[in-house]
Structures are given as structure tokens and as C-alpha cells.
Amino acid sequence: MTKFLGDKVLMRIHVGENDKYGHRPLYEGLIDLLLHAGFSGATVLRGIAGFGPHLVYHTDKLLELSKELPIIIEVVAAQEKIDMVMPKIDDMMTGGIITIEPVRVVRYCNYRGGGGTRRK
Known about the structure:
By secondary structure, this protein is of the alpha+beta class. It has a single domain (2-105), classed as Alpha-Beta Plaits (2-Layer Sandwich), CATH 3.30.70. It is 21% helix and 33% strand. It has 2 helices and 8 strands; from the N terminus they run βββαββββαβ. A 4-stranded antiparallel β-sheet has the order 4-7-1-8. Strands 2-3 form a two-stranded antiparallel ribbon. A two-stranded antiparallel ribbon has the order 5-6. The chain is globular, with a radius of gyration of 16 Å.
């Protein structure tokens, strides 16, 4: 995997927990897209609080009845690879924000613990 080292870009896709793509959570659809497009990895992060353009504060407090917590999907890849999937990502999203910034990958290796679920 040494060919993955060096200058890449970090794409962060910010969506809401309740955002859907079809009948599934949007983040699952985005992860499937990235997996099938041959990306080397992606991570989904669930926020504990946040607000968006409507300035409504969402939190994970126990008394909150409806949760709409922030979800962030992070992926590191070459710019060309991100450009390849961006039209499809754009079609899948109805809101949210996507940011891209340059990064330098200095280490990339397989996890040794396993435990993940391999999607088909």
C-alpha cells in the first residue's frame, strides 16, 4: 500500500442523521458508493451536537425526543478519484456540505484486529 502515501485530499461530507437515500440512511448509501468505486477507506463519525443553516441546535441529550445529529463521512483519496464520484454524491444529497482540503498521507496500513463487516 505504499502507493497510497504522499499528497492526497481529505473530503468531509456533512449530513444529518435522518437524511435518507431511498429507504436507507444517506451515510450508508455514501459508504457503499465509495466502497464500490474502489476507495481505500472511509470513516463515518456521529456528532454529539451541532447546528446547520436553519440554526436549530441538535444534541444527544437523553430528554431529546427527535435526534438529528450530525454525521460526517471522511475519505482520503487522490483528487481525480474524488472528482470521479462527486456527480453521484451530489445526486444523492439534498442538503449538507462537502469540504475538501489537501493532506499528506505518511502512514497507511491494514487494521490487524478485523471485526468489520464487509459489504457486498
